[in-house]
Specification:
13 strands, 4-stranded mixed sheet, 11 helices, Peroxisomal Thiolase, Chain A, domain 1, binds oxa(dethia)-CoA, globular, 2 domains, 5-stranded mixed sheet
Length: 330
């Protein structure tokens, strides 16, 4: 084991140019801007254009993160890509990202843990750095949820958007970096959020396509009930693992699935609005990209400052949940 901690030395994001507004959804579906904004907080989301895939968007986010870190792609010796909408079931989207970037051969793989995938990736990379098997690692989260959204299902079509985000982690001595993480999964909740067809349980067939089983299915209320418990649990557990408590928390960066889920956690913890990053109105739920996109916004508005204690926390399909406590700064 090394005495090095995984420090975020670069952060980058990518979102497609195409903006899909609630007004456009009103034209296509039996829904309203009023319903979407009051029930979810979402006003618009980004949608991948022709030729944009999980790997192309992920590669663009990594490029931005490498530029931010001032590092060439050769400096990265360990890669993990969180995604639920990889370009193909295999090979991995991580491998494709290496190819897009002209990266030399290195360990690279995908992690699939619903919207919590980015947080899972952070723990894996932090462990690889602590174990001495990696010096610098990339964690990239990229999802093209528009590709698995049933655009005729108003219960899900209004929620999701596309995007990617990446961090470069480097092992460094000192007190900055990932202090602790917490991961969990309750497999009995799997059926509440799933893509039924296309895997070994239900291989693709004419029937699965006819029955729209290649689209995401969600029991919104069940996932909502789970999320309002899981988000606070993740925050409390990770603070406790870091030997800290709520009073130490400077900034909460929650997964952006529904403004009401975030507000429930804020209320429970008695946090001030400026202590919580919310950007769901512009991106919708981008799954594994939502935390890096929110981190980038918090940095842009000056809230992500050196020395601050930041907790990133997520929940999603699995059902998974988890968090990481990060002492921000290089
Ligand atoms: O990142 C992965 C994790 N995912 C989540 O965290 C999502 C968690 N779930 C949610 O955020 C919420 O459950 C939703 C936003 C999906 C739904 O909000 P809700 O307040 O739970 O609504 P509901 O499903 O209970 O539906 C309320 C009503 C229903 O009509 P009736 O039965 O009361 O007549 C729905 O048919 O709203 C109706 N409805 C809509 N109306 C207009 C559902 N979707 C829409 C829509 N536009 N898009």
């Amino acid at each position: 084991m090394s005495n090095l901690r995984a420090v975020v030395v670069g952060l980058g994001t990518y979102t497609p140019a195409r903006i899909l507004t609630n007004a456009e959804l009103e034209q296509r579906l039996d829904t309203s801007d009023e319903w979407i904004t009051s029930r979810t907080g979402i006003r618009e989301r980004r949608i991948a254009g022709p030729g944009e895939t999980a790997s192309t968007m992920g590669a663009a986010a990594v490029e931005a993160a490498l530029t931010d870190a001032g590092l060439p792609v050769e400096a990265i010796d360990w890669w993990v890509c969180a995604t639920n909408t990889g370009d193909t079931v295999f090979p991995s989207t991580a491998g494709r990202i290496l190819a897009h970037l002209g990266a030399p051969p290195r360990p690279a793989f995908d992690v699939q843990a619903g919207c919590t995938g980015f947080v899972y990736g952070l723990e894996l990379a932090a462990n690889a750095i602590a174990a001495g098997s990696a010096r610098r690692a990339v964690v990239v989260g990229t999802d093209v949820l528009s590709a698995i959204t049933d655009w005729e299902d108003r219960q899900t079509a209004v929620l999701f958007g596309d995007g990617a985000g990446a961090v470069v982690l480097e092992g460094r001595p000192g007190d900055r970096g990932i202090l602790a993480s917490y991961l969990n999964c309750d497999g009995t909740g799997g059926p509440f959020l799933m893509l039924p067809a296309g895997g070994s349980a239900m291989p693709a067939s004419v029937e699965t396509v006819a029955h729209r089983q290649h689209y995401l299915k969600m029991s919104g209320r069940e996932v909502f009930k789970f999320a309002v418990r899981a988000l606070p649990d993740a925050v409390e557990q990770v603070l406790s693992r870091a030997g800290l408590d709520l009073a130490d928390l400077d900034l909460l960066v929650p997964h952006q699935a529904n403004r009401r889920i975030i507000e429930a956690a804020v209320e429970r913890f008695g946090l001030a609005p400026e202590q919580v990053v919310v950007n769901i109105e512009r991106y919708g739920n981008t799954s594994v990209a939502s935390i890096p996109l929110a981190l980038a916004d918090a940095r842009a508005d000056g809230r992500l400052r050196d020395g601050r204690l930041v907790v990133v926390a997520a929940f999603g399909a699995g059902l998974t949940w988890g968090a990481a406590a990060i002492r921000w700064g290089r």
